[in-house]
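User: Hi! I have a protein structure encoded as tokens and I'd like to know what sequence might fold into it. I'm fairly new to this, so please keep things simple.
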């Protein structure tokens, strides 16, 4: 049972690591979004060829920013239960007492009710740890993929915003 418990605990730790990876890209996206807004508001739309370079770059950067933000939100939050947990210690203790009482009342061969309850509980916990670890691994893989995509679009947003800053700067001169 130990291996299943360790896998379960490793996936809970991985979940925490994935959740803690969200604030940095969120901050960078906020900065880039603010920068894009300032550039769009301050740009003088008087016509000319430079605006035909700036506008598409700024629009593409904005779209990539929105896509990155949507992946970030989806990586952090999902409708419904996101993680499977094993019961709390007091619930497990109560369950063990109920199993022990059941085996005390129904064991006819003179065996130890505590031994039967322990064996049954260990089998059930082994299955619960394995199922929870497997489900949590799938959820963590999903989150990891979404975070990877969010970061990819974040890099594209950064590049697009940098490229849009060139015609913006030239126009401001």
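Assistant: Happy to help. Inverse folding works backwards from shape to sequence: for each of the 173 positions I chose a residue that suits the local structure. Here it is:
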């Amino acid at each position: 049972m130990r291996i299943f418990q360790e896998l379960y605990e490793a996936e809970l730790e991985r979940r925490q690591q994935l959740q803690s990876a969200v604030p940095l890209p969120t901050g960078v996206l906020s900065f880039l979004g603010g920068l894009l807004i300032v550039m769009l508001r301050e740009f003088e739309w008087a016509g000319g060829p430079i605006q035909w370079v700036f506008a598409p770059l700024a629009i593409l950067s904005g779209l990539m920013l929105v896509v990155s933000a949507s992946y970030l939100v989806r990586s952090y939050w999902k409708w419904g239960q996101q993680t499977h947990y094993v019961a709390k210690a007091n619930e497990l203790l109560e369950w063990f007492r109920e199993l022990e009482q059941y085996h005390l009342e129904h064991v006819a061969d003179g065996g130890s009710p505590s031994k039967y309850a322990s064996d049954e509980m260990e089998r059930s916990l082994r299955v619960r740890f394995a199922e929870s670890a497997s489900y949590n691994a799938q959820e963590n893989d999903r989150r990891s993929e979404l975070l990877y995509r969010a970061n990819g679009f974040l890099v594209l947003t950064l590049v697009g915003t940098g490229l849009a800053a060139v015609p913006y700067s030239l126009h401001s001169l």
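A useful reference point when you look it over: Residues 2-172 form one domain. Feel free to ask if any position seems puzzling.
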